[in-house]
Structure formats: structure tokens, C-alpha cells
Amino acid sequence: MKLSFRYLLLIAMSLVSLIPICVLAFWSSHNALDNEYRTVHDKHLLLAKNLSQALDRYSVDALSIFNRATDSVTKQHIATDFIKLFDDIDVESVGEYDAQGNLVNVLFGSAKLQPVSLAQGESFFDFSQLSTARFTDVHKLSGGNPTLYMIRKDQQQRIWLAVMNPEFITLLQSAVQFGQKGHAAIVDRQGNVLAHPNKEWQASSKNLSKVSIVQQMMAGNTGVMEFYSPAVKQDMIAAYSIVPTTGWGVMVPQPLTELYARVESEINTIIGIAALTFFACLLLSWWITGLITRPIAALTAQACALAEQQTKLTPWAKQRLEITEFVALVDRFYCMSTQVINSQADLTKRVQDKTADLAKAQAEAVYLANHDQVTGLANRMSIRNTIQQRIDAKQAFSLLFIDLDGFKQVNDTYGHGIGDRLLMSIGQRVSSHLEVGDILARYGGDEFVLLLRDDNQCNTVNRKANAVLQLIKQPYQISTYLLGVSACIGIAQYDGTDADTDSIIHRADVAMYQAKHAGKDQVMHAC
Fold it and tell me: In whole angstroms, what is the distance from residue 438 CA to residue 423 CA?
């Protein structure tokens, strides 16, 4: 993308004017939206708290009536006064159960509404906290409709269960309507719907525990937040609170689009003023850039000609009135072009040479970081990384820990130079007989580690280990010396129990020491 200097200068001046205009417009719009947010915050939170207080008063009264009514039961009958109160608090049925949760008698309402047992079925009741009456969470018994209950255990260890009709809860929820989609919703402590404008959700007591605002209510918090509502499929802002007695959550959400709609007129006015201001700045910038860039046009044409011809400048026809700075610029440009042409080839060659040297040095550094300098095999760090990768990927493999017998005597007798050549010969000999995917590494000193890929059969691993042992025992011609060493090999097979590299190497190392203690020149399996 290419821009003339005039257009570039115009863009810069336009941005200089646009930024404060946009900041001012955004600040004004944001203030308008903030004011709307503060209004929603105060009103919705007050409404949610009022609903919570109403539900708390209802739940306290209902539990008190339930306590007194069940305490007053005589001869399997409830007093007439309490029956009227049950109707007032939307109790549909009251049942008596023994201490094991088996139905004994139905004292009020339909017996069909009472479960046969409270301790069996897909949704059993918790008997651990029945010393005081409480509301249960929504239960679904024997495939029936979701139901809310009150439950308590009296001093005679009788369990009383009241089947609730959520009519009052629904009435409170449905009384809150504002805007186009503003509403209230009530859930129990597990996030199950008690009352909601979506009647299908209410009928099935849909669980909304995965919705962020419901999680806040389940945690016992109160406040205002934004969230995505699956019911109306919109982003919402909602105040939420909890009912202290029951732990129910009450939220009063409203679509954010309704907030935006209320401030849309004010924002549109702000945007119109900002657009007119920017247009005026744009016209002024265009006039000023013309004054600045017209004298530069001739110099730009000369620069383009130089780029095409490379070695020759077209003479510049000077006018009567010249700008001193531009005359000096043309002279300097001519000198610079000659130097650039002469040095370009040399610079290209030097860059190529440096790039090649860097690539070579990088390759050497990577090789040295992962290979042993004496044997050329993978080094300790490289093999440990490979083992950890196999463990992380849960890939089957076997690990042979090899320690040479008699190597110290070779070093002491013939010197470390001969010892290093012997280690190199051992590494080359064993490596030449490995299968594809097997890795031999020098772990340190006269210790080697052999990783056998995908080998988890004991017979196969033992056969390979003994073959390696026989290879190592064959004589080596080092300079004028005929040398011989043996080895002890410890085997550890990865079976998924090793959490890291150190664990499986330790097992193989222990097996190797067991081989040494057993007389050397042996192969031992780790336990």
C-alpha cells in the first residue's frame, strides 16, 4: 500500500483532530450509559431485595405454621384452624412418616401427592438436618412433576412432609414485569427453577446452575452483574439476592438492548455533533496539507526517476524561488545514491555469509546440547527428555540401564584417552545392532541407557538385553591393545505407574546394582 505525502499528512492531521473528538464523544456516551447503569443497578437491586424479603417472610410464616400444625396433631387429625392456614400458604398435602422415611398416614390433602418412601428412589430426602423445619430443594419423585416440600422431624422421631404449591412464589415472580423483557426469576439452592416467565422451564424445574448469575446466588452473594440468558438468548444485566431462610436465589434481569435503546437518542445527538466537527477539521487539514506538500512534488518526481535509473539523476530545473532545505536535500540525495549503489553488493554478500555462519553455529549448538561429546550418542539431558515424553504420552517402552564392569581398570591401566575410545567403540557397536526407534544414550561415566520402543514383552526385552550384553563382551581393538569388558544391565518396563523420568530410571538402576551384587555380567529385571 502506497500513500502520497499529502495523503499521509492529511491522515495524521485528521487523526490528531479525530482522537479528542472521539474521546469526548465516547466520554459523553459512556456517561449517559453509566447513568443508565447506575439507575438500573439501584432499582433492580432494590426490587430483588424486596422480593427476597417477601419470600423470606413467606417462608418464615410457612415453616412456623408447619411446625405448630404438626406439633398439634392428635389422633391422626390436624386442627381445623391449621387446615385454613395450610390453604393460605399453598400447602396441598401433609404426610406423616416413620423414622425410616416410610409413609404412615396422610393427614391433609391428596395421598397421591405423598411419596411412599422418603429414603428410596431417584430423589431421596436427606434426614441429617431435620431438627428444625425447612424447605427442601426441588425433588422429582418416581418420574412425577418437580415438587417443593417442607420437612421436619418431631421429638417422637416422626417425619412430617408438606407438599407445596408454588402459587405464591409464581405470583411474586409474575408481578415483576418492566420494559419489553424485564422480569424476575426464582431458583432454589441447587439452581432449579421455582418461578420463571418461561413456563416450560418452571414446569420442569429446569436446572440453571451453569449460568454465571445463578452460581453467584448459589454461593450466597448479592449484587448486580451482566450475563447471557439462555431463556431470552440475549445479554442481560440483573440484580440478584438470596432469601436468608431458604437459600433461594432471586434475580431481576433486563436485556442490555433495552438500556441501550433508552440512551440511543442522546448518543445519536453526540455522534452527530462529533461527525460535523470532524468534517470541519478534515476540510481544514486538506487545505493545510496542500500548502505543505505542493513544493515537495518536484523533489518526489526526481526521487522516482532515481529509483528507476539507479545510477543517474535527472537535472532538476530550478525555479526563481526555491526552498533552501529542498535544494540541500537534492544534493545530499545524489551523494547518498552513489554510495548506496557501490555498497549494496558488498552488503548483500556480507549478510549471506553471516547468515550461513549463524545457521551453522546454531546447528552445532543444538547438536552439542543433545549429544555426548565423547561417544556421539544422545546425552543425559536428551534421553531424559525422550523418556519423559514417552511417559507423558503413555507409550509402552522398556528401559535398560547399562553399567560397564572393569572400565575403571581400563582407565587406570591405559589412560583416559584409551577409555574414551573404548566407550566410543561400545556405543558404535551397540548402536549398529539396534532396531528402528531404539535409542542408546550415554548417561554418564561408564553408564549407558538404552530405550526400547514399544517393547513390553518380558521375553523380547530379555532377549534384546542379553544380545546387548553379548555385544559388549566381545573384544575391542583399541590402538595396539585388545581390550575386553563386561556389563550389568538393569531392566525397567514402563507400565503406567511411573510418574516421571527419575522413577523409572531409579528402578532400572536398582535392578542393575542387583545384577552387580549377583556376580556381574548379568541382566536383572526391576520389581
Answer: 19
Task: Tell me the C-alpha distance between 43 and 182, whole Å.
Answer: 12
The rounded distance, in Å, linking the Cα atoms of 118 and 84 is 26
Phi-psi region of 182 (alpha: psi -120 to 50; beta: other; left: phi over 0): beta
Continuous segment of H or E residues that includes residue 395:
none
Digit-coded pLDDT (tens) for 48-69: 899 999 999 999 998 898 888 8
Cβ-in-10-Å burial (0-12, 13-18, 19+) of 507 comes to buried
CB 247 within 8 A of CB 220: yes
SS3 198: coil
Dihedral of the alpha carbons of 126, 128, 132, 137, in degrees to the nearest 10? -20
What is the amino acid identity at position 273? I
- The pLDDT tens digits for 228-251 are 887 778 888 889 999 998 889 999
Three-state secondary-structure class, residue 73? coil
Alpha-helical runs (H) found in 90-188: 167-174
Query: Residue 250: beta bridge partners?
Result: 186, 241
Model pTM above 0.70: no
Instruction: Judge residue 488's burial from the number of C-beta atoms within 10 Å of its C-beta, 0-12 exposed, 13-18 middle, 19 or more buried.
Output: buried
How do residues 381-417 score in pLDDT, each as one tens digit?
999 999 999 898 888 889 999 999 988 899 888 999 9
Q: How far is CA 337 from CA 272, 324, 330, in A?
A: 51, 20, 11
Give the whole-angstrom CA distance, residue 146 versus residue 136: 12
**What is the reported pLDDT for 338?**
62
* Structural contact between residues 440 and 427, judged by C-beta atoms closer than 8 angstroms: yes
In this structure, are strands 447-453 and 476-478 parallel, antiparallel, or unpaired? Answer: unpaired
DSSP state of 521: S
- Residue carrying C-alpha cell 401433609: 94
d(CA 256, CA 226): 8
Residue 121's CB is within 10 A of a number of other CB atoms, namely 15
Q: Rounded to the nearest 5 degrees, what angle is found at the Cα of 258, between the Cα atoms of 257 and 262?
A: 115
For residue 329, name the pLDDT band (cuts at 50, 70, 90).
low
CA terminus-to-terminus distance, the chain: 69
Instruction: List pLDDT tens digits, range 12-23.
Output: 777 887 788 888
H or E segment to which residue 410 belongs:
helix 407-414
Produce one character per residue of 185-224: b if its CB has 16 or more CB atoms within 10 Å, e if not: bbbbbebbbbbbbbeebbeebbbbeebebbebbbeeebeb
Neighbours of 366 (CB within 10 A): 10
The C-alpha cell 518526489 sits at 300
What is the spatial distance between Cα 168 and Cα 180, in angstroms, rounded to a whole number? 24
CB distance 504 to 399 below 8 Å: yes
Q: Please say if the pLDDT value at position 340 is more than 70.
A: no
**Integer Cα distance of 177 and 164 in angstroms:** 25
